[in-house]
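Revision sheet: structure tokens.
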Amino acid sequence: MNIFIAGLSYSINDNDLKDLFSEYGEITSAKVIMDKATGRSKGYGFVELADDTSGQKAIDELNGAEYDGRTISVSEARPRTEGDRPRRSYDNNRSGGGNGGYRRREY
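Predicted:
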């Protein structure tokens, strides 16, 4: 079972997540998501447990719990769909020119 954890302290790392969930069963992966530009945690992560029953127990017991001074939200991760991620558009300037969004006044 893949589990999503939100509200993590920015000091939490992959091993901390592994430690937190280890009492619930065999962990196949634990990953805190990092910002590529800054290298800093984004405050959420994923843990994958080998057994769905153990995963559900972890969700039930840890959702709303305090961890490292923050209240965390724990839920089953949903698969990402095509619409989840905003598409990057290079046509955002709808003013019709490269004037920083300002149109030339017509007199």
